[in-house]
Structure formats: structure tokens, C-alpha cells
Amino acid sequence: MNSSISGLDIVLVHHPVVNATGEIIGSAVTNLDIHDIARAGRTYGVDNYYIVTPYEDQQMLVTEILDHWITGHGASRNPARKEALELVQLADSLDTVIKLITKKRNQVPQLIGTSAKVQEKTLSYSDVRAKINEKEAILLIFGTAHGLAPQVMEMTNYCLPPVGANTGYNHLSVRSAVSIILDRLLSA
């Protein structure tokens, strides 16, 4: 049961991302990211929440967690959690996600990146909100570790401005950033 009101898709990329020194790595999937981002997505009417990891052990972990909460014992114990986790789809690459969305929407989605750093092709939250309201196919891309790899950022059409205040500290968890960004884009 998907009650999407936005037509917006989101993706959490675990590979390729960068570490603190800028090396391209793959990061581990966390249980908290699966649950909390799905709950935020369901709350704000996101269509699908994709998790990208090419690693079989990480894919198995995601599958086990989803099975427990969607069809297993967790489904009857917590129907609200089941409803949120039904948004989650697992993919081995960002290219796979783009193909799935293109097929679903009959158009290639605009790729909107996120970063804790200001990017060159930044588009304001109000401009992205207008694209969502016009029902454009949009994939909002979030990264793990220390952010999306340069090759992912190069794929994007635009990037959102960083979340945060002018404190000089900008190390939000991706769960927090997703929630803030969804609120900025999808609140009435």
C-alpha cells in the first residue's frame, strides 16, 4: 500500500561514495537508515526509497530486515513500520535505479544531488519544489560515508543547497538530512 502524494523518488547510495580522505569506497548499510528514511519517506509521501549497494552481504542484510518487517513477525507487530518499509527497493547501482524509474514514469528522472558542501549547479529548494508540483520525474540522491563520489555528482542535473546553519559544523546524519530536506520540499 503506497500512498505517494509527491511522485518523488529518493535513493541512498552506499557505493560509490567517498571517505574522509576522498577515496572512493563502499559503505555499510545500517538498520537505522533503512527504517528511519523509510518512515520519513512514508510521512512525506515519497513514491519509492531505493537503497543502492553492490555488495551481496549488504543486499542480504537489507532483504532480511525487509522480510521481517513486511512479511514476517514484524509485520503483524508493527503495521505502521511495515507500511513505511514497503517503500524500500534494493538496487545494485544508481544506473539500475534510474532505469527502474524511467520505466515506471516513462521519462528519465531529473537527478538532484545532495551534499554538505555547496555545489556548482545548485538549485533552490523552491525551484525543486516547483518541479515536484509539476509532476516532473525526480530522483533525490543522498550519499553515505562522507558523501557522493565525484562521478555521481557529475551525473546530477542539479544539487540542493546544503542543510545546516552557519556554525562551521555540518556533519548531520543522512537520516536527519533526509528528514529536513523532505520537509523543505514537501511540506504544505
From TrEMBL:
UniProtKB keywords? Methyltransferase, Transferase
Which segments constitute the tRNA (guanine-N(1)-)-methyltransferase C-terminal domain? 8-186
Entry's Gene Ontology molecular function annotations: methyltransferase activity
Per the record, the GO terms for biological process are: methylation
Q: Which domain of life is it from?
A: Bacteria
Q: Where is the signal peptide?
A: none
Q: Does the keyword Endoplasmic reticulum apply?
A: no
Keyword Transferase tagged: yes
UniProt protein name:
RNA methyltransferase
Q: Which organism is it from?
A: Desulfotalea psychrophila
Q: What lineage is on file?
A: Bacteria, Pseudomonadati, Thermodesulfobacteriota, Desulfobulbia, Desulfobulbales
